[in-house]
Amino acid sequence: EGDVESKxxxxxxxxxxxxxxxxxxxxxxxxxxxxxxxxxxxxxxxEVDGNEVSSTKMTNFGVCAVAGFVWGFGEGVTLGGxxxxxxxxxxxxxxxxxxxxxxxxxTDIGIGTxxxxxxxxxx
Length: 123
Hints:
Blueprint: E1 6-22, E2 29-48, E3 51-74, E4 77-96, E5 99-120
Antiparallel strand pairs: 1-2, 2-3, 3-4, 4-5
């Protein structure tokens, strides 16, 4: 009887750029619109006894339109909210051993994703 060592590894690298245009403040509230673009690439790998058994490689690209506000309600404290409309697409492949077994693709559309955030700055 021998022990079998199984290991799963995931790596991911990505970058995103966001540009915002703030409108004239309405009191302590600053509304804005903007856009984002980003990409990521990654690999999931399964190994048994140090030998790669299967892997999935993926590359994704996405764009997003955002609209939100930042409310400054104290010295260095802001509360904000943001909505987004996003589109992303990705492609890759899955291999088992040395054989490619499938192509991988995905397309995602996100509508009205809301987030709320709090920022505190200190000196």
